Amino acid sequence: MTRRTSTRATPRKHYTVDAFEGIPELQDAEPELSPPARNDDSDSADDFVAEEVVDDANGNVVEDEDDDAMSGVEDEDEPLHEVDSDAGERQLDDSMSIISDYGDGSVMAADEQTPLRTKGGHKRINDPGNSSFNRGLPDHNHRSVKKQLTIELLFGRDPDDWARVKVACDKWDQEGPLPGLREPDVKGKGGFHYSYWQGDEGRQREIDEGWKWYFEQGGRDRFQDSQNFTKITPKEARAYDLVGDASDRAFLMGPVSTPNLTKLARHQSVSIDDAWSAISDRSHDAKPKRSGFVLNLGARVRCLEWAPNQDNDYQYLVMSTLPEIQVGASNGASAYVPRPASPANIQIWQFATDGEGQMRHDTAPLLNTVLCNTWGNAKALQWCPSSRKPLETKKTRSLGLLAGVWADGGLRVLDITVSRNPTATTYLRIESVALTAHPPNTLFTALSWLSSTRLAASTANGCVAVFSLPSALSLDPNILVRPELYTRIATGYILALTSCYPSHPSLILTSSTDGFPRLTDLSSLRCSSHEATVLAQRSRTTVDLIAWHDSSQAAITLDESLTPKALAIRRFFTSVNLGRGKAAGTALATSPCHPSILWGTTKGDVIALNPMARIRRPKIKPVHQTWFSHEYRRATPAELADPSNPVGARGLSRFTDGYKVEDVVRDFHPRRAYEGEKGASGNPTVHTLYEEETAVTALAWNPNVKCGGWAAAGCGDGLVRVEDLVPG
Which segments carry the region annotation Disordered (predicted)? Predict the structure, then answer.
């Protein structure tokens, strides 16, 4: 059946709406933006024309390929698209030219004679003068893109980059959401390995040259001279412990049908294996031991960070808590005002490991060191990730440089050394530090290491400061530390900051209250310019979670639709959906040793996924696996009235685990969910409110390749779960 075209044979009448039309003095010789010229056929006739794809290299019409890697467009029965389109930005670019790369033999070459048209068939209007939004990349519609072009768009044209991509994908493409092997198999698949983009030569160069300022040029001596830690007694340390009188925490753990009730005092731990074996009716000796522990810190967990460069018999985890603050006239300051000085502490725990990198379930973790201060609670803590030689004596062991942002708005760097005594806890009061910085008229909110010598920190007014440690330590202690770079890159409060270390240490990722994730090049002379700062798609709600995934060269963030997204470094303005959670995200962690990602939610779930295959081929069905789920409920009136009740006044928590790998829940259509249609899972625009203690508030992967499968998760009720997730 044919359809008669609706093209008019006579020209349409033209009615003047411009009162000044016809006056030559008021008319430009060539208007900057003329109305778009219409096609020979009307727009309504396009409905019956099959969609064609034009090969940019030769202008020929090609067929749409099934192995479309950049489209992210799923089958008809899937209501959600997997790659967010940049249609909104393309509409803004309709009136400006697109810069294309030309070159013989390149799959990204474009035909100069091929006209650029909009979706409706209108010709694009070239405006070379307006280049502020030009990305310098081809404007593909993501419907038919070859695999080779996908690699070039995501990772560049350098063959060395392709080689790293191929090695990483061949190694981890077939891995599950959680790491399954400590060492690669006979085919080289699986296992742990540091970044292929940095390489062994880069790591060795970092060890040999990156720490010369510390070992050979007097940096270590300056830290020891300016830093003063005083050893105190446990009784004196109680003045810096705001949750010392917290009661025991009761929780359930084990099989769902017959869980085991456990009560933990503060700073005590219990083995996960013991919690399961205590109620098992079958022979437990034949089963592999579960290597992990649950600790009770007594208050909401704020920070968790594993110490890097530790390949010895112990692994170290630094923690900080956020006790409930009674808001009053003296401490009711907003997030933009530094809080007054108050006592607080940070804790360093040690976990024993065997020769193969497995966690020893027969040796309980020990609270090694407690660092007491008067700066308030630590809002962010991060160890310097640069590779370095181990530094230890018979009695002490150096863990490296620890940078932190505290409640008083200040940034500080500590040189941490712990005792090798595996039986006693050391209490230290921090009298002075080697490097302290306070921004003018604002406060620091987040930080990230760029290298062994440089540190970046964000502020509440949208600025980023970069400090050079050798330069700062060379100054007189009485002189205020000034950053070598201080520039504004955002219009609001910066919630999160992380660097693209180790492959791109000069690039930083930030997330602010304006909803835009940003990628900024600190090596640029104007970091806030369009050439140095790239914006990703805006989120309707503020997202304070962003992390760098070096294995896939992408930034990982979560949006308001409960979806973790990957933002490729060379296609930062588009994103690939990696999964779908069932509650808002509260914590995010990536590993430098393997591609597995962990993210926690307000529902108490800790979900793992492997994005390696999906970032390159978005049509692959995403899968994820729940590590564990944490729940909390308040104490009932009967439990409060009965002092002998084991639950107590602090309520009851529960851990459930043993989840299998499952397909990502994507059918969140609102209408189908409200009508109760079969298969509908819920409405992404409606978020459930959970108890504050239920949320997973902090996550961390162990950065040492020997123990890369160790993960730690902190919860809102003060419980911390540390487990070796690689099967023994």
Answer: 1-93, 117-141
